[in-house]
Amino acid sequence: MGLDGLEDKVFDAVLFDMDGTLVDSTAAVYRAWAAWAVEHGVPADLMRGHDGIPAASIVAKFLPEADREAGILRINELELNDTGGLVVLPGAAEALAALVDAPSAIATSCTMPLARARIASSGLRAPSVLVTADQVEHGKPAPDPYLLAAERLGVDPTRCLVVEDAPLGLQAARAAGCATLAVVTTTARDELRADAIVGDLSEVRFEAGADGIRVRPAV
C-alpha cells in the first residue's frame, strides 16, 4: 500500500481530528441529536450528514436566532450526559503513542468540555494541545482550528499533516495549507479529497525523528 507520496515528506507536526478519526462516537452523537430533534420539532432524518460541523452551526441551521443560545446549551447538555458506547478506532492509540514526544494536537468540532469527556471515556493519551470549536471564531470547514493548533505548537501549518475523516474537515485542513491524510471511517472513499486515503490508522505508522515526523505504510 502506498501513500501517494506522503511517505516521502517530513512534517513538523501531526494534527488529528477526533470524532471519526480517533474515536467512534457515532451512536452517542445520534442519540443526543435525535433527542434534541424531538424536543425542537425537527425531523430526525434531517440531523444526519453533519459530520465535522460544530454544534452551533447545526443549531443555527434549524432554529431562529432568538432560540439558538438555548438550543446550543441543550445539545451540549445532552452530549455531555451521554458518552456511552464510544469506541477507540483501530490504530488511534498507537498513532498517539508514536507521537507522544513529538509535536501533535487534536483539533475537534466539539466544545472543550465535551472533548475532554470523550477523551476521558476513550482512555486515549491525548496530545497536550487540544483545540475545540469554542476556542475559534469560525469552526470547520474554516481553517481556524488547524491554524490555531499549528500556532500553539509553534509550527508552520504548511509543514503539518492533518488526519481527518470528514470532507468538511479536510476542506478546513486544505484551507490552512496542511497536507492531508483521510481515513475511511465515516465517509465513502470516493467522497474524500485528500493527499492520501487509508481505511483507518492501523494502516499507517508514524515515525518521529530529530528531523521531523514521517508517515509510513504499516505493512
UniProtKB/TrEMBL annotation:
Assigned EC number: 3.1.3.23
GO molecular function: sugar-phosphatase activity
Keyword match Hydrolase: yes
Keyword Lyase (UniProt): no
Enzyme class: hydrolase
Alphabetic keyword roster: Hydrolase
Protein name per its UniProtKB record: Sugar-phosphatase
